[in-house]
Amino acid sequence: MPIHRRAILAAPILLAGPALAPPALGQTLWPSRPIRIIVPYAAGGGTDILARALGEALRPTLPFPIVVENRAGGNGVIGTEALIRAEPDGHTLTAVVSTHILNRHTMAALPYDPIRDVTPIAMLTRNTMVLAASAALPFSDIAGLRGFAAANPRALSTGSTEALSQFIGQEMARRLNLDIPDVQYRSGGQLMTDVVAGHLPLGWTSTASATPHMATGRARIIAVSTATRTPFFADVPTAQEQGLAEFDLAGWVALLGPAGMADALSARIYSAMESAFQSPAFLARLAALGIEPDLRPQAPLLAAMQREDRIWAAASAAGHITRQ
């Protein structure tokens, strides 16, 4: 059904729908202008792809558009700082990966508290990380990687885009007793471009970043980071299946707001997310993009953030991650 300009001007709130009831009397209207989602990573990566797909899915539901703004740099810090300085009125949000929590334990100085200084709104997706390899390499599994690296010292390097994928790559190398240097990239899209071109031998990245490049035939997936296989590469065994016991590391993408947002406002924004995730067309698009939906409301997201904070604190205490 078309949205008429007069209707929008008359009611600058969420359009009527079963999950999106009007606000109570006296409650701030949301949205009353375009909504900005800051993606604190470069364009073309999995988080950027998800945010833009979400914005399109919400277009029929909201009276104002969602504008995605990339503010890359500092492992997500630059964009997150912009969020924290924004008014907590629901018109500036950010989509972050789980490195948002890990940064506290890997960066020398983080200019904000990744839990206290934001408002958790919704967990959006699970990021199963996959190990992509150039098809020019003469191996297709971890055992072959180990043998090749042992016979060809310093021939391999592993690309990463943030602290989580860097940790996964270095943890795998540590478990295999190999020296595989890390090469940092600004986005999964850039990392995969270099894998496909043969400039980068290996890279840990999300299924969303890897999937569009598989049709080239110039890259292959040789392992996944989680305890269970991903449906997007169902024939690829997990790292655990290939001998790395208890190797189970994954990321996620979450929607956050500035600290101080009212619970009722957070709930209204989550209801908008629910409407998108109930759309068969949106879910089909996520599947085509290699993105695993995992929608959860504020309380479970906060619990996941707090749990990971404890996990990374323990890893830091054991010396498996260090501050830089």
Number of helices: 11
Low-confidence stretches: 1-21
Strand content: 15-25%
Count structural domains. 2
Task: Classify the fold: give the CATH topology of the largest domain.
Answer: D-Maltodextrin-Binding Protein, domain 2
CATH homologous superfamily designation of the largest domain = Bordetella uptake gene, domain 1
Key features of this structure:
alpha/beta; D-Maltodextrin-Binding Protein, domain 2; 2 domains; ten-stranded mixed β-sheet; 10 strands; disordered N terminus
Structure notes:
This protein has 324 residues and is an alpha/beta fold. The protein folds into 2 domains: 30-126 and 250-317, Bordetella uptake gene, domain 1 (D-Maltodextrin-Binding Protein, domain 2, 3-Layer(aba) Sandwich); 128-233, D-Maltodextrin-Binding Protein, domain 2. It has helices at residues 5-10, 46-58, 77-84, 99-106, 142-151, 163-176, 188-197, 207-210, 263-277, 280-289, 298-317; strands at 35-39, 66-70, 92-97, 118-134, 158-160, 182-184, 202-206, 219-224, 250-258, 292-296. Strands 1, 2, 3, 4, 5, 6, 7, 8, 9 and 10 form a 10-stranded mixed sheet that branches. Helix 6 links the parallel strand 5 (158-160) and strand 6 (182-184). Helix 2 (46-58) runs antiparallel to helix 10 (280-289). The radius of gyration is 21 Å and the shape is globular. It starts with a helix and ends in a 7-residue tail after the last helix. Mean pLDDT is 89; it is low at 1-21.
